[in-house]
Amino acid sequence: MSSIYQKIAELLRVQETFAVATIVNYRGSVPRQIAKMIITKDQKTYGTIGGGCVEGQVVEEAILMLKQGVKGVIVKSYDLVEEEFGGVGMNCGGKIDVSIEIAEPDPKLIIIGSGHLSSAIAKLAQLLGFEITVIDPLATKDRFPESTIVVPDFPETNLPNMHISSNTYIVIVTRHKDDLPALRTALNTKAGYIGLIGSRRRVLQAFHILLREGITQQQVNRVNAPVGLDIGAETPEEIAVSIMAEIVQRRRLGISGSAEPMKVDASSLEAASTPNVKM
Q1: Rounded to an integer, what distance in angstroms lies between the CA atom of residue 159 and that of residue 156?
Q2: Which pLDDT tens digit goes with each residue over 171-195?
Q3: Both 88 and 182 in a single domain?
Q4: Can you list the alpha helix ranges (DSSP code H) found in 32-132?
Q5: Are residues 92 and 194 in the same domain?
Q6: Domain limit, last residue, from 71, 103, 135
Q7: Domain count of the chain?
Q8: How far apart are CA 246 and CA 229, in angstroms?
Q9: Among positive and negative, which fits the CA dihedral 229, 223, 167, 67?
Q10: N or C, which terminus of the chain has less Cβ within 10 Å?
Q11: Which domain holds residue 89?
């Protein structure tokens, strides 16, 4: 069992999302009473919950959950009898309950830049459960939350050596002369999100230069710029809220997600449906 936990730690370390199947209850004759199994997105498995048809069904269920982006845990019951008797095609005669849990690594946020805005973003990101790395030649540890990894160097030197996956979010909030080197490097990673701060004019200038250099339109389209949701933000703290709101939106809703108020329109209720209230 210890090897299973080692594999879980390894997959989380490399930012992979996967499923863990665990026998949580059993009745009667079963091949395994206590067991765990890992299922990855590419259908690899580690460990076993007893083999046979039941294991195949658990793998199918886990893969479906991973593809659909299901969060949390489900519990499924399996009768280990022949299919003609409503089972999974096994003749053990017992029954097992299996929990299938989706395990996600903590999202990783890389902030390129170390000014007041970077500090505000890091503090908010920590509250949201992100692993934070700040990269900037002028970065100092005292400006950021204690758990933040601070790299006082240029992004083009460090980003290529970091493990960056679709669960990594990169925000570029540098002194503007450093925007292009940071963007070029970020676009060569597998980051799930790349954001760049700046006015629309400055952003378009940066895009124009990148396109002239041979970077494709498809690559440039990966950049979210100007970064953040339009909430009328002005202070570094408000802008940090705008940026992290967009990142949470991307993480939870995907690229097609849109941020709309959740307010219910009470005026759309028919008068007849309104209860009589005596004042």
Answers
A1: 6
A2: 999 977 789 999 999 999 999 999 9
A3: no
A4: 52-68, 116-127
A5: no
A6: 103
A7: 2
A8: 6
A9: positive
A10: C
A11: 2-103
